[in-house]
Structures are given as C-alpha cells and as structure tokens.
Amino acid sequence: MNIRFDRVERAQQLMREQGWLGIMVMNHDDYRYFFGADRSQPRAIIPFEGPPVLVAFAGEEPELRDATAGAPIRVFTHVGGQIQDVVMAFRDLMKSRGGPPPGAKPRVGMQMWFETPAFLVDLFRRVNPALELVPSDPVMDRLRMVKEPEEIALLERAQSIAALGMDRVREMLAPGASPHEIATEALYAMMKAGAERTSTPIYVNAGRDTCWLHGRISAGPIREGDLVLVDLTPQFEGYCANLARTFVVGRPDGEQQRLLDAYAEMREASRDRLRPGTKVADIDARGLEVCASHGLGEAHVDGISHGIGLRFEETPASTIVKPHRNVALLEGMTVTVGHTILALPGLGGVRHEDIYEVTPNGGRILVPYPVDPVVGR
Amino acid sequence: MNIRFDRVERAQQLMREQGWLGIMVMNHDDYRYFFGADRSQPRAIIPFEGPPVLVAFAGEEPELRDATAGAPIRVFTHVGGQIQDVVMAFRDLMKSRGGPPPGAKPRVGMQMWFETPAFLVDLFRRVNPALELVPSDPVMDRLRMVKEPEEIALLERAQSIAALGMDRVREMLAPGASPHEIATEALYAMMKAGAERTSTPIYVNAGRDTCWLHGRISAGPIREGDLVLVDLTPQFEGYCANLARTFVVGRPDGEQQRLLDAYAEMREASRDRLRPGTKVADIDARGLEVCASHGLGEAHVDGISHGIGLRFEETPASTIVKPHRNVALLEGMTVTVGHTILALPGLGGVRHEDIYEVTPNGGRILVPYPVDPVVGR
C-alpha cells in the first residue's frame, strides 16, 4: 500500500473546480491509482479535501493501519455495515463543509464502466438520497488519460508478458492443435512471467469463429488453412496489456490474404495518425477508406483504437461511449490500434492489436511484435 | 448452440404470470442457461411468447443461422446498431401484444448482479422510456434455484477440477514457497483438466492476509507457521466451482488450532442444516453459537452459505442481497458452506468451502475433499 497523495491532491483540485463533495471508489483501477495496491473489494472515498477514507473489513484493520500511516479507516464487521459506513462518511463530509449547499444536491462522482454493478449504484442512491451521483470521468479522465512515465513502464512490462504468451502460441499452432490447449499454455507462460491475471478470457478463435466481434476459445481442433485469431490481455501490477495477432495455418487463400493486406495497411495508417489533436473518428474514417480501397468497405467496423492503462478500455473508448469518437488525442496517452475486427461473414476475420504512446510523430509502439501470420507449415 | 426451448417456455409461463413483456439477457449465465453456449457479448431477448430473439454482430450471422435453426436474429453492423436493434425488438413485441397496455408501463426483466454494468442499465432506460426495467430474479430464480440433474453433474465436474487444483497446491506448500507460483501452477492444473477460466482470481492468502474477507495473491514468500488460505473457482461449461481450504505450514499454534476447530464444527453444523425449509439466517445463527462456544463469537461473520450454479453467487446470496437471509432452502438447490471467514484481526483467518446439494437428510457434498490442514513439515 502506497497512498499517492499527489494524485489525491490533483483529484481534489479538480473536484473543487466541479463543486463535488467527493469520489466514491469501488473499482480496482481507481483504487490502484490512488493507493498503489488492490483489494478484492476496493472501497474508499476521496473527499474534496483532507485525507482519503478507506472502508474495510474488521479483519483487515491491523494491516491497513500499518500500511496507511494514519489515514482514516472506516471498519465494518457485518453485512450492511459497509453500506452504513459509507453513508456516515458522506454525512460527516457534508457537515465538514458546513451542511448541504442551498439548492442543488451535493455531487459525488463514481466510475460507471463495466465493473460498476447496477445494483450497487441503485443501492448507493437509495441510502444516500441527499446526494447526486454522477460519473467520475470528468475528474478521473483528466488525471488518468495522459500517463506518467512510470505508468508507461508498467504498460510495457505487461505488454512484454503478452509477447511471451504469443511466442508460446506460435510454437503450438499447427493443424490438429487444440484452441483450449493453446490458451492454457499461453496463460501459463504469462503467469510464470509475472502476470497476475488477464483482463478478459484468452481468445483463441479458429476458422469461422474469427468473425466474432470479440472472442472465446473455439471448440474444435485447428484445421489446415484456418485463420486463427489470438488475443492476450495479461495484467501486471494492475496495468493491462492487449496483444492480438491473426495467423493462417498453412497457405493463405485469396480472401484471407486480402483481409491481411487491408488490415496491415489500416494498422499503419492508424498508427501514423496517433498524434495530439487527432480524434478516434478521424482514424476510423481513414480506416474505412483503406478497407474500401481493398473492396472491403462493407466489412469495416468503427472503433479501431481505445485508451488503455489500469483499465482495459478507458477514455477514449468509442465503442462503449459514442461521444468519445470526438475526444482529441493528447501527447502521452496510451491507446491500442487494432481493436476492430475486419471480417467476411462466414469466411473469417483479422485483427492485429498493439499498444502505442501518442507522440507528435505518430504512435510509438510500446513493445514491437512481428506481424507474421503464416505458421504451421 | 442448443436453444433450450423447454426452459424458454417455462420462463414465458412465469413472465405471463408476472405480466412482463420479456427478459433482456445480457449476462453469460442466463445466456448459457437458455442457449447452451456462451458469447463474449451475450445479448438476447426472451419475449413473453414466441421464439427468443438473438442480437449479434453481422460477422456472426452465418454461424448463428446454422446453429439456431430459424430463430429470429437481429444483426447489427456498427456502433449503436446493437442498441437500435434492442429498441426495435421491444417495440415490435409491444405491437404484437396489441400496443402498450393502459396505465402502467410494460415491464421488462433484466439480471441486476455484479456483471450488469450500471451504465448499460441507464442506457437501456434512456432508449426505452416506454418500458419499466425490473430485476429478473422473480422469474429466473424460480427457474434456476433448483438444479436439474444434468446441472448437478456439471457442477460436480467443475468441483472435481477444483480438487485437482487443490492437490497441486498441497504439493507446493512449504516454507519459502511463492503464493504467485502456487496460484500459477494451480491454475495450469485446472486449465489442463478442462477449466475454461476461473470465476474469481485465485486466492492464495498467507499469514496475516488470511484475515481478508475475500482474497488476493499475497506478496511475500510463505513462512514456517503461516496460515495459508486458498480459494479455487474454476468453471466448466459455465458451471462454477468453489473449493477453499486453509493450511498451516508447520505446527499450528494455539490460536490457529482454535480457529480450525471452531470452523470444522461450524461447517458440520451448517452442512447438517442444509434441508428443505432452513433459512440462511438459521444456519448463521447456529454458526454464531458454535463460534461463541469456542470464545470466537466476536469473530463470527454472517453469510456462511450461498447459492451456486451458472453464477458464482446466486440466490440465496445473503451477503449481496440481505433479504435472501430469509429465503427457505428447497430440495435440489446447490449451495456452498464455508463462504465466511473466521478471523482474528492481525493474526489469521480460516475458511473451508465446499458445494452441497440440499436434501431431506442435510447437505450432500458434491465432491468430498479432505480438510487436512497441516502441511509442509
């Protein structure tokens, strides 16, 4: 545990600008960001001023007291106690600000992404009727979109682990190989290299399953001539890797080669546009042009790039939040290129995904990994 | 893919009793339950009558057409298309029922557990203002709480895989062993045995970290005399295992032995109460008595038992939904015993968790696994 008071203070400055009472942290990524550690049930409050408030189970108190050097801790001992603690902490906070403001309810920010369950948000609203709950993005994006150098180093480490997993995949790809065995061995290689877990299940999609927008582990054995799409997402100290490659087991046919060629060209065009000021919509528009020039305009899907860091998909994430299409890239952001599948329904699809840092000269790939699709011959 | 029309029809019967328009499926477990397969983005509508409607990406259409033998499929091709499809499907459904009913809005059920993100629920409400969204539990619990024999067989298979993982853990436990290496090897053993993934990250908590209400992978090496708590949650065909054991590396001291003895007695008392009609609150009350008789009443935490099946925690899940404390067990339910940690803050905690089938004679353990805590001497 390592409370990052510098980050807390920057969040508080932004909260005061927005007039917020605090941020309720219930997600692994924000918890890691502020406290340099994770818990299975991350719960904390970042108030508009003063030290953060940790909410933890009684059994964890001695450890937290040692680790936090005096930060306030709300300790619960029974079902419901945790909720009670949060309500009381916000009441105290309101009092410390001299009671509720006249007119509007005081605002509290909370992350509203895939990890925030609807029933917890409903519960929070029900037990805190005096508060207005809003998405925490306006504060947290300002803090987290542009990465600190140490964050980029951790992303590189995570992506290097993904590269080791992909090496293992390449060794195993051959006619008759089992997608489940490939996923098993890749996961083992990445865990041995230090991965804590993966952000998503490993995808090893073979044959027609490469058309899936996202993935799974295909059922049958890999056949000669199959496209095989592998997506690896190990985490290291909470930072998320994302490395996807598509392989042809044997000799690519004409359609497969067309998909591979178009994707390679779209990837390079996108990488070149990862400069401050570019919008994701601009990158997608250029991608559509490239695909159309290969006769694949109908197969193009928007959303080739998304932010990545402590969250697997973070701002800009235009396939989750449509207005993010218009977020302008900033120097020092980390984004993927290759999120989109390019698929011919019933035949197969291609995706090559890597992480880049946005620079004035275009994207700098964090960990170069070959695009070398023909294997197993 | 294997559409379970029998289950769809039972859901429709219950929906008509409740006056619902349909159920929006957005979760892996309900999707598996109805369609016998999973997707990375499960999206379907079970209407109050007629065949289910699958919502899928264009690239997946040929595969789905082959697999579903004519069920309606709504195919989206771009960002936002998916949302549009859902809205249109519900409008058509309302029309097929002769327009909206007078007075109240037509109700649509949706699962509201950990996997249902708050922002998707907000989005659904915003784009479907003519509908009232309610938790789908009143229908889905009636279908899923009592397990079919084939479901119990799949749970046994999953739990057997967890047992193989725990065997591997036992082999490795010794002073100096790395919790991360233990987690890596256990996961590898379980994947090789057919696990698709785990429901939660593997927990290998050592020393004081065994006090955590839930877990993580402890940082340091295991030391002589440490308590080590391991929780394994592999999935097989979507069915969730849950096997937890606590070990002492070396000779247990007096406090450790007291925790182990109390937990063993609480476990047996709980297992004995897994009969039709018992409430989780009754089991917890007896657990408190047992702990108090060992001088550990203060350390007792409610919530020793939860339902398990295609979801890792399903009804009754009293630590998530407090009113579930009063759900009466039914013959054929599958529940865990051992969800609760029994911890002395700063010293250590114990948990032994298994899955049982509720029978008139008390819980039948699905896969017996020894409680044999002393290792590595």
Summarize the structure.
Two copies of one chain form a homodimer. Chain A has 377 residues and is an alpha+beta fold.
Classify the helix fraction of chain A into a percent range. Answer: 25-40%
> What oligomeric arrangement do these chains adopt?
homodimer
CATH H-tier superfamily of the largest domain in chain A: Creatinase/methionine aminopeptidase superfamily
Cα-to-Cα separation, first versus last residue of chain A: 50 Å
**Which band does the percent of strand residues of chain A land in?**
15-25%
**C-alpha Rg of chain A (nearest Å):** 23 Å
Query: What is the overall pLDDT average of chain A?
Result: 93
Low-confidence stretches of chain A: none
Total domains of chain A, how many? 2
Give the count of helical stretches of chain A. 10
- The CATH architecture of the largest domain in chain A can be given as Alpha-Beta Complex
Write the layout of secondary structure elements.
The structure is a homodimer of 377-residue chains.
Chain A: H1 5-18, E1 20-25, H2 28-35, E2 44-47, E3 53-57, H3 61-68, E4 73-76, H4 81-96, E5 107-110, H5 118-127, E6 132-135, H6 137-144, H7 149-172, H8 179-192, E7 197-198, E8 203-206, E9 227-232, E10 234-236, E11 239-240, E12 243-249, H9 254-272, H10 280-293, E13 305-307, E14 314-317, E15 334-337, E16 342-344, E17 348-350, E18 354-357, E19 364-365, E20 374-375
